[in-house]
Amino acid sequence: MTRTPIIAGNWKMNLLRADVTAYAEALAAAGPSGAQAPDNEVDVVLFPTPVYLGLAATAMPDWVAVGAQDVHAEDGGAYTGDVAAAQIVDAGASWALAGHSERRQYHGESNDDVARKARRALGAGLVPVVCVGETLEQRQQDQTEAILDAQLGAVLEVLAAAGGAGAGAVVAYEPVWAIGTGLSASPEIAASVHGHLRARLNGHQGGLGDSTRILYGGSVNADNCRDLIGRTDIDGFLIGGASLDPASFLRIIRLSTGSGDGS
Ligand code: PGA
To answer: pTM of the entire structure?
Structure first.
């Protein structure tokens, strides 16, 4: 089965209103009809901070989807500062991250919390991107597979509910030691972990591995993206730092989809 690649940018707590507008203009100028257009066979998604979800959804060209960096596990109610899935949809977004390592680390999100968030996102019609990944200490102690199995195991039912069709749900492998460090996982390490995740997905009732896209994230840039995406089980990227500048993000899209030399 061919899986459409995804190139996603996670802006985290960066950029202001004017930056979002300028970013949208830069992407609009680049495609999709011009000679420099990103390949059509790619899903491009940006995850802005929640206050700019509506702005980004309106300003971005229609080949760019918008998603939330987090989603609350409940439908609504007395949860000060949080954002419900229905509100994310209402703002014009169509994707949501669940369980980014910064949420797990700074907000104490457990595997169970992440599963509940992903389920809520899916129920509202959002495409959940469930993030998994081990810390450096866990890798050094040879716990990588056990950690990933626990993180993935918690969301298998949600992924199964998303079904195999089209977008469904997405997994992002983001080793914590590679995020924001400039130290990307080597293509060999990433490929081996992605292969493991794919096998686990396939081992689940019904086999989810062929349809579920697995992204790599952690210091992806224009220099390493081609080697990483060349690996069978790597279906795209979740990019932090290198997505903050539209030129850099576009370069990665072009290099990863083979639709240009990135210039
Ligand atoms: P990075 O972040 O590309 O800056 O390492 C990736 C992420 O946290 O999604």
So the answer is: 0.94
